[in-house]
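Submission sheet (multi-component)
Chains listed below:
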Amino acid sequence: MTTNTATKYETVIGLEVHAQLLTNSKMFCSCSTDYAGKEPNTHVCPVCLGMPGVLPVINKKAVQYTIMTALALNCEIPEYTKFDRKNYPYPDLVKGYQISQFDMPLSLNGWINVTTDDQTRRIGITRVHLEEDTARLMHRQDPSGETYSLVDVNRSCSPLMEIVGEPDIRSPEEARQYLMQLRSIVQYLGVSTGNMEEGTFRCDANISIRPEGMKELTTKVEIKNMNSFKAVYSALDYEVKRQQEVIGSGGTIVQETRGWDDASGTTNSQRSKEHAHDYRYFPEPDLPPLAISKTWVDQLKANLPELPVARRQRFIDDCGLSEYDASLLTATKIQADWFEQAVKLSSKNSAKAITNWMNGELARLLNSTGTDFMDTKITPQNLVALIDLIDKGTISNKLAKTVFEEMFATGKKPAGIIEAKGLTQVSDSGQIDGIIEKAIEDNPNAIADIKAGKEQALKFLVGQVMKLSRGRANPQMVNKLLIERFK
Amino acid sequence: MELTKAVLAHIVSTDDKIHSYVTVTQDTALKQAVDADKRIKDKSATALTGIPAAIKDNMCTSGTKTTCSSKMLENFVPPYNATVVEKLNDSGMVMVGKTNLDEFAMGSSTENSAFGVTSNPWDYDRVPGGSSGGSTTAVAADQALFALGSDTGGSIRQPAGFCSVVGLKPTYGRVSRYGLVAFGSSLDQIGPVTKDVTDAALVLNTIAGYDAKDSTSVNKPVPDYTKALTGDIKGLKIGIPKEYFVDAMQPEVRTAIEVAIKQLQELGAIVEWDVSLSLTDYALATYYLIAPAEASANLARYDGTKYGHRATDGDSMWDIMEKTREDGFGTEVKRRIMIGTYALSAGYYDAYYKKAQSLRRLIWKEFNQAFSKYDALVTPTSPTVPFKIGEKTNDPMQMYLSDICTLPINIAGIPGLSVPSGFVDGLPVGLQILGKSFDEETILRIGHAYQQATDWHTKKPALK
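Outcome: structure written.
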């Protein structure tokens, strides 16, 4: 086959997402899942240690969370589901098999709409199923340079939900948007923290390219080790280019697993297909098939919380926000909740002002300091208080930004900051007149120009008055008093 | 206390010849005997309080080694009790020891043990059957008053028949498997090994019932099984499936079984000969695909990284894991892991494992149909009397055939009872009584009535 460089290629991406579920206990035993940051091997029992003779017991909450997610992703929930054993040896897999789901998953055939650059496309969800997480290996080196590995079993047997997507994604950006939307959904449902950096939300990608117009799927490459949304985008972007280069130079794509390396910004081959596992799936004999009652599913469906898409629309309709602003505010549940709390607290309708502060100053400060929204010290109460002070004229808009920075840094109330720093706006005409006197005294030339009718000079004088008041004088009043004086 | 001391002393004087035990738990036993005496004085005793019992060494006992007769678990001390052990402890049992078995319960002769062969008390040169051979010899030789065994394809009933004791495999799901080291998870079931049917009913009363830790245990009330022992079996319909009287059957065993069946007839049961269970021939193949397939996964955890045996001379992690399994497992265990792995492999799954599962459903259905006509089915427990030690060790197929009458029962999940029913040249013959799912009562009633009319179960080996 000849390949000319002018061939246009289409990218085909399918994502597999694993989300750790926020249940109190593990998937198949009663150990607590609250092991983050705890001593290794302290949240364990014979079951999650894979001791001889133990048996798994299904965590109903995990099943419920998976069904809720599946419903939010427009999936069908079959009447029967079962668990299977996926066999492969690895020291982090304590039983030598993982309890997962093979041919009868909890849910099938869903979809979500994903928007990029004003284009909205429907991305299929193959299935959402439930499985158990593995233990965690920690690789170490002793002083002689010998490497060894330690096993922390705390994570073993934690509930893990897998969301398998159809190969419907057509660009790295679409992959990122899809992933962010999934994250947002699991967060809105309260079923997962959805944190990629901490590994509670993980993503592997299958990617291939094909000449535009071709219908068949071509050889795909699996990409692993992407630990942030940015990494997913960069890895896929790199891989598209790499595959185009390989084909462009007359080569062929090898089916393999490649790992993304954040540091070098490249993907590297990890395992080829010849070394792929035969997982020898078979039905888990220790767990009878589960019947999922329609009544339960209907109940869960009726009680689903408002999801990001609906909330965005509500913000647009009820608060008069732009689509852009509403999208930013609803990207994470915590941010949208914060916004709504602030709106509820504001004495009059300050939704627009709240939005501007959140998407403007707050976003800028979070970004420049690398702070997560979750950790912001500003409370909705304090932002609303600041907006009230501006509206009442207690502080100028310009100085409010300084106050906001202080609020961001310390979490203090705006009134206290204004008082401590003496930033109250001066609106007393006597006091302002005093400052005007001083300004006239200092700028005899300007006065002459004003008298000669030069508009510019009046503006200059306003500026001088503001400067002398260290920004505290009410600019409208300064303007008014000066005009009156030289009328 | 006196009883416990007597049994412990008897173990010391007899076990060098029989080798029922992997571990004798003298200290635990004496401590439990003190507690039992207190309960008896307090009048809070149960039927099992103070009774010396033996536990097959594939059931986890907290603080006491549980080896599965494998080098792999030679020094494994579980941190928890199996549910059955917990229940027996609550009832006041005195555990005198952990009994020998074929490694990981894979075998029919208790010859596949990393810690030595167990001998049949009726003839030391012969096997006791297996895999619960240590449990049945302990009861036969008065080294324990009762024992627990596990039965995946006949591992309680076949050795019970070979040792002339009572062995019951309850319905799958009747007794919790939590803490039983898994072999074939969908087939394994724990049951009592006792001197007579009444004792079997008493032990079953204690160990049966739903366990939240075992999702395959069934939430059905547990009756008082002793109430079923009325001695009256008049009018019960008993079918005799002809396929269980195989060509390779010893003629003397056939005669003994026929005599036993006639005895049931005399007791008033309505016996129908020549009932056909046409799928019986497929049971062996079905079993030897499903059980090894499940075992291949169940035994994957023994890799030396967490507990048990660990090879030290490997070059890499993978090398150590492989060597651990190479030295830790015996030949029969390896054979079954390989069969099971193969049966589940891509490209073979449909032809082997899946087909076996379909057959399993058909076999289950055929039993169900038979039980729509009969209250129970009666067969020999084994086609032969106990064979010589070493006689079949080099011929796995011959060894597998010794379970031909017991395997189908696990495939169907129904309960089966073996009761002593005579001797051929001084060697025991067992009668197998099969019942409907969760109808242990009927088979216990039949076994009990039979023992009222016969004295085979009272015979004791000379131990010479």
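Remark: The mean pLDDT of chain A is 91.
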